[in-house]
Amino acid sequence: MTAGQSAPSIWMRPERSAVGRPAQRSRAEITCAAVGIADREGLDTVSMRRVAAELGTGAASLYRYVETRDELLDLMIDAVGGEHQLPGPSGDWLADLVAIGEQSRTILRRHPWLPGLVIARPVIGPNGIALLEHVLAVLERHPADVATKLEAFAMLNGVTAAFVQYELGGGAALQERNVAYLQHAVSSGEHPRLAELLSQGPPAPAEGGHPAGDGVCADGGVPADPVGRYAHLITRVLSGLLGPAPGAA
Amino acid sequence: MTAGQSAPSIWMRPERSAVGRPAQRSRAEITCAAVGIADREGLDTVSMRRVAAELGTGAASLYRYVETRDELLDLMIDAVGGEHQLPGPSGDWLADLVAIGEQSRTILRRHPWLPGLVIARPVIGPNGIALLEHVLAVLERHPADVATKLEAFAMLNGVTAAFVQYELGGGAALQERNVAYLQHAVSSGEHPRLAELLSQGPPAPAEGGHPAGDGVCADGGVPADPVGRYAHLITRVLSGLLGPAPGAA
DNA sequence: GCGTATTGCGATCGCTGTACCCAAACTAGT
DNA sequence: ACTAGTTTGGGTACAGCGATCGCAATACGC
What we know:
Two copies of one chain form a homodimer. Chain A folds into two domains: 10-80, Homeodomain-like (Arc Repressor Mutant, subunit A), CATH 1.10.10; 85-169 and 205-242, Tetracycline Repressor, domain 2 (Orthogonal Bundle), CATH 1.10.357. By secondary structure, chain A is an all-alpha fold. Chain A is flat, with a radius of gyration of 22 Å. Chain A has eleven helices and no strands. In chain A, helix 1 (27-41) packs across helix 2 and helix 6 (114-120) packs antiparallel against helix 8. The structure holds a DNA duplex.
C-alpha cells in the first residue's frame, strides 16, 4: 500500500524462501567468489559471467540472488567490512577509534579495489551497521551529539580510504604514468617547486609493514613510517571532530 | 629504445599534428561535453556514443582524441581541477590551504560524480600540477620535507572528496535505501544505539550554503553549519600533518 | 598536382548487464 | 500418492558498450 516503489535494499529482502526448489548457492558464496576475483584480477573483471563461471554455473542464475551487478558490489563492500574485529570499549575512545581505523587500513590495503568503490558507493549493510554500532558504543559516554558522532564515523571510513588510496598510488600502472608525466612537466620548464619533489622520494610513497614504533608519538613530531603517519593523521581528524582525547592532554 | 612501452599519459602526447587533415574538434571541447553529460545525467551515462552524439559526430571519431574511455575520464578529472582559482600566497599557509580546500569542496559538490572518481583514479594532469605547484608555493617556507608536503596535498584532496561524498550521501537514491535499511535494522531488534541516531538528524546530513559565520571558530568549539564543519576538519587534518599554524598558537 | 600525413566515421567484433522462458525440484494440501 | 503452487537453474536473446579496421576526405610541403 504505502510502498516506496524503488527497490529498497538487498538486506531487506529475505535471502531464501521456505517453499519451492531450494537454492544451490548463497549470497555469501557468490560474494566470496566475486571478492576473490576482484582481489586477484581487479574490480572491472568482475562480470556476472566471470563470477558465474567461477562457481560453475550460468550468468542468469546469479540474478536469483542479486537483482543487479551493483547489488553484488554492495554485498562485496559489506562483506569485507565484516573482516573487522570489534573488541569491547576500553574506556579510551580515541585509542579505540584509532585501532578501528588501523584495522580498516589493513583491510583496504588487502582489497585495493575497495577504497574507490566505497567512496563512490557508501552503502551500509549488516557489517556496516555492526561497525557503526560499535563506534557509537565506544563513544557512548562522549558528550557530542549524534550528528557529530555520525560524521566522525563517516570520516573515519572516508579519510582512511583516501589515505590508503594515496599510499597505493591508485595502482602501479597509474602511478607510473603520473610519475612519467611529472618528470615530463618538470623537464619542459615551468614548475620550479616540482623539481625538488622529484629529486627526492616520489616513486613509491610507502609500504605496508610497521618497521618502527607502532603509533602515536609525542605531540609535535611527525612519525616517519606509514603506520605511524596514518595513526597521527586519524588521531588529528578524530580529535578535531570530537574534541581532544579523554584522559590525554 | 629505452621506451617504457605502456602508453605514458595523454598529456605527453601532442594534441594535434602540424601536418595532415586538421582536426575539427579539440580535447577541451570533448571533455566539456562529457562533463556536461556527467553533471546532468550521471557518470555512467557518459558513453563514447553519447558524448559523440552530443557533439554531432560518430563514436569512432572520439578515438582520434582519446585512446580509451578511461583517458576521457582523466581529461574530465583534470578539467574540473582547472576550476580552482589560485591567488598568491598570503603568508599564512594554513589559511591559504583551507581556502583551497573550500574551493575544492564547492567544485566537488558541483560535480557529484567527481569524489568517487577522483579517489578511484588519482590521476594528475596540467591542472593538477598547477594545483600541486601552488600548494608547494604556499608551503615554500614551511620546514617540513617534501614527502610530508606531498602527503598533505594528497590528504587535502582525499579528505575533501570523502567529506563531500558524506555530505551528499552518495546520491539521493542510495541514501534513501540506506536510511530505509537502518530503520529496518533498528526496528527488528538488536542495535540500541542506532535508535537514537534515527530519532534525530539522519535523513539529510547537510546542505550547501553558508548560513552562519564563515569558518574556523575558537578552538574547542565545533561549528554547526557544514561550511564551518568542513573548515574545522580540514584545519585539523592539515595542522596535524604539517604542525600547528605559523603565527597562531 | 602529387606524395604524405592526418582526421572523420560507418561497419563491425566481442563482451557486457539483464529480461524471458521453461524445465527441474521442492513443499503443502488433500 | 498425487496435484497445485512456488521457487531455482540456466540456455537463449537483445540492446548497448568500448574498441578496431578500413577507406574516403582533407590538409600541408614540394
